[in-house]
Amino acid sequence: MEKKVLVIGGGVIGLSSAICLLEDGWDVTIHSAEFSPNTTSDVAAALWYPFLSAPVEKTDAWGSRTYDILKLLTVDEKAGIEMVQTYEYFRSKQEDPSWMSTVDKFERITEDLPSDYVECFSFMTQVIEMPIYLNWLMDRFKFLGGKLEKQIVTSFSDVSDDFSIIVNCTGLSSGELCHDSEVYPVRGQIIRIKPLIGEMHLDQQVPTLAYIVPRSNDMIIGGVAQEGNWNTEATIEDRNFIIDKASKIIPGIKDAEIIEDIVGLRPGRTEVRLEKELISGRTVIHNYGHGGSGVTLSWGCAEEIVEIINE
Ligand SMILES: Cc1cc2nc3c(=O)[nH]c(=O)nc-3n(C[C@H](O)[C@H](O)[C@H](O)COP(=O)(O)OP(=O)(O)OC[C@H]3O[C@@H](n4cnc5c(N)ncnc54)[C@H](O)[C@@H]3O)c2cc1C
C-alpha cells in the first residue's frame, strides 16, 4: 500500500492529524499557507471546553479523548499545558453538562458567587498556551519525520499524484476550498493583560461571554462570538465590552495593564466535518469546522482520521 499522505493546513487540527498519522506509520507532508504564529489556532485562549461546535454526541467523545491526552501532556513542561482550577458561572439553574464525567473534580457551587450569578460549576481543566503548544506540536511532527512546505492549495486536483491521500485541515478556508456554504466565521476578540490571578473564571453564554484565562506570563480575557463577522481588526467597542463583562467576575480587571488586543475568526460550521470524500479518484478526508473547540477536539478528531484512513 502507498503510504504518502498530504495534510493541508498547519494549525492545531492539521498538526495533530499529521502527528497521529506519522505515529501510525504513514509518510506525511504538510502544505500550509501559514504556520504558527500566523494561524487562528495561535489566537485560541485556549482552554479545554466544548464551545460552539456540534454534534454533541461526537464532540463529547472527541473532547473526552482530547482531555485525557492533554492531561497526560501536562507532565511535559515544554508543551505549555497546565491543569487549572476553573469556575463557570450561570444566571439560571443548570442541568448537568454533557461533558461532566470527562473533567476532574466537577462540583456545583451556589453560594458566594460574583455579580448576579446563581450557580457555578467548579472543575479542573487544561489551559493550553497556544504559541508554546503549537511549537511543541511542530517539534513532535518533525521528530517523527514529517515534512512541510509553505504552500497554498487552491484546488485538491492540483495536488501532486505523489500523494495518494489528502487530509484537509484548512479551517475557515475550507468554505472556499470545498465550496461548502455551511462554513462561516465566528469572530473572536481577546485581550492580553498582565497576570492577576491563578484560577480560571468563565461565563460561556454567548450574549454575556466572559473568560479569564491565566497563563505563565500573561492572562487572556475575552470575549465575543460574532457569527458572520469577517473583521480581523480589533475594535475599541469590543475591548470595552469585554473588560466590562470580565470585571463583573473579577473587579480588578478594569484596572489591569493591557498588553494587546487580538482578533481571530473561529471556523464555524453547522457541524464538524470529519469524513471521507472521493475527488477525481483520490481520497480526501476532511477535518474542519471545529468552531470554538478546535483545541478541545483536536486529538479525538486526529485519531478518527487514522481510523478512517485505515478502513
Ligand atoms: C478568540 C478565540 C478564542 C478561542 N479559544 C479557544 C479555546 O479556548 N479552546 C478551543 O478549543 N478553541 C478555541 N478557539 C477555536 C480554535 O482556535 C479553532 O477551533 C482552531 O484553531 C481551528 O484549528 P484549525 O487547525 O482547523 O484552523 P487554523 O488554525 O485556522 O489552521 C488552518 C490552517 O490551514 C492553512 N490553510 C488555509 N487555507 C489553506 C489553503 N488553501 N492551502 C494551504 N493551507 C491553507 C492556514 O494557513 C492554517 O495553517 C478560539 C478561537 C478564537 C478566535
Automatic annotation (TrEMBL):
InterPro entries: D-amino_acid_oxidase_CS (IPR006181), DAO (IPR023209), FAD-dep_OxRdtase (IPR006076). Residues 4-307 form the FAD dependent oxidoreductase domain. GO terms for biological process: D-amino acid catabolic process. Keywords: FAD, Flavoprotein, Oxidoreductase. One of its GO terms (molecular function) is FAD binding. The keyword Oxidoreductase applies. GO terms for cellular component: cytoplasm. Its cofactor is FAD. Belongs to the DAMOX/DASOX family. This is FAD dependent oxidoreductase domain-containing protein.
